[in-house]
Design a protein that fits this description.
20% of the residues lie in helices and 49% in strands. The protein contains six helices and 14 strands. The strands form two sheets. Strands 2, 3, 4, 5, 6, 7, 9, 10, 11, 12, 13 and 14 form a twelve-stranded antiparallel sheet that branches. It starts with a helix and ends with a strand. It is α+β, with helices and mostly antiparallel strands and 291 residues long. It is globular.
């Protein structure tokens, strides 16, 4: 207003108005899952660690098939894992976990807006484990991994890290959102805040997608926004791991909800060991469900 007043009071200078700053583009990410379609994804995790002068590498690859069905005013997500493989230092390793994963379907109930509510019949995982792996020390480790409460906690955290604060919202380029994540590294867990920044949209074979850049925060800044602090508090105020860093990108189709792709590389030093964990997922396509 001051600059306009000065210009208006000058008799010889023509009235001029500086062009307004362009407003950031806004996109909406609706939660409208594909019905009567099977979403096939390839998911891959690569974990490497430098320990005692040696580098160890482990790679896991899964094929998942996901269906969404309207249920009680929300959605039932059902995901199966028909195939999975494990490699250590380039050599494929047979494991009974693949048989366990192939024997049960993970089911999660989601609210209408995409909020994670709970797992449905999570005890099916332990029943599948009993059919495959006999009792013993290895079975004990897997029983704890597939224990219903632990399974639900991991499923909830994975969903919220990927989608909380994004669905059913108008998103502005440059807008940030946060979620706390935990990544196992050796005998420890690395904790960090994942920051997601809206970069715009990009065309994909599965439709126009919202593009999010990903990075890690190993501490809350002094001027942390309320939303960032709230995300940390809601996660139980975990102690964040100093020095953890990450980068990645996530694409989620809008209009019809499809997680197109996601890649995240996390690096941290734990007990003197340098860890790198890369997780990737990519939608291979949507097929009409066989009846």
């Amino acid at each position: 207003m001051l600059s306009l007043t000065v210009t208006a009071c000058s008799h010889r200078a023509p009235l001029s108005v500086a062009p307004a700053e362009p407003r950031p583009a806004t996109v909406r990410l609706d939660f409208q899952p594909p019905v009567d379609r099977v979403l096939t994804e390839t998911q891959r995790s690569v974990r490497s660690v430098e320990r005692g002068g040696q580098a160890l590498r482990e790679e896991v690859e899964l094929t998942t098939r996901t269906r969404f069905t309207p249920s009680d005013g929300g959605w039932l997500l059902a995901q199966s894992v028909p195939s999975s493989r494990l490699w250590r230092n380039g050599q494929e390793v047979p494991t009974g976990v693949a048989d366990v994963l192939a024997r049960f379907t993970l089911q999660a109930w989601l609210a209408a807006d995409g909020t994670f509510v709970k797992l449905v019949e999570p005890e099916a995982a332990q029943e599948a484990l009993r059919q495959v792996v006999p009792g013993g020390s290895e079975a004990g480790v897997l029983e704890r991994f597939f224990e219903p409460e632990a399974l639900e906690a991991r499923a909830r955290r994975e969903w919220e890290v990927k989608f909380s604060g994004l669905l059913q919202r108008n998103l502005t380029e440059g807008q940030r959102s946060w979620a706390v994540d935990l990544v196992p590294m050796g005998d420890s867990q690395v904790a960090y805040v994942l920051e997601r920044t809206v970069q715009g949209t990009r065309g994909t074979p599965l439709g126009d997608a919202v593009v999010l850049s990903l990075r890690c925060l190993d501490a809350l800044p002094e001027d942390a926004p309320d939303a960032l602090t709230d995300a940390w508090v809601m996660a139980g105020r975990p102690e964040l791991t100093p020095g953890v860093a990450c980068e990645g990108e996530q694409l989620v189709a809008r209009g019809r909800f499809v997680p197109v792709s996601r890649q995240l590389t996390v690096r941290a030093t734990v007990a003197g060991e340098a860890w790198t964990v890369t997780t990737e997922s990519r939608a291979e396509g949507l097929q009409e469900e066989a009846r």
